[in-house]
Amino acid sequence: MAVCVTFIAQTYGVSISIAQYFLIGLLLTLLSVTLVAVPSSSIVVVIMIAGVINVPVTDRLGLIMAIEWLLDRLRTMANLESNAIGVSVIDHLLKKSLHDKQDEESGDDFDEKDDEEEFASVV
Length: 123
Hints:
- The chain is built from 5 helices and no strands.
- It is mainly α.
- It has one domain.
- α2 (18-35) runs antiparallel to α3 (41-52).
- The termini are far apart.
- Pfam families: SDF (PF00375).
- Residues 99-123 are annotated as: Disordered.
- The chain crosses the membrane at residues 12-37, 43-67.
């Protein structure tokens, strides 16, 4: 989205200072938490960030929307993939400690074969 705001500023011939780049980075970092939950919310954020650094967006809105729908889908895909990887890693790391804790509470050693036999008897 920072690239999108920079592109819009360049098409209008507006130069962005280093302080404005830091402001864009800070605002996008803070707003990135809210972007995940709302589809196509990045368009609103790009317009808001452009307004903060005094870059008009009136006639470039169609250009933004033509590109942002694809970028929004790619962001969604990356978010879902990272969530799936995070869940898999946490499951892998905590599975053994969870079974160890259950074994301590029950006093029995965990045996995967017993669980398979119990599942087979239910089915």
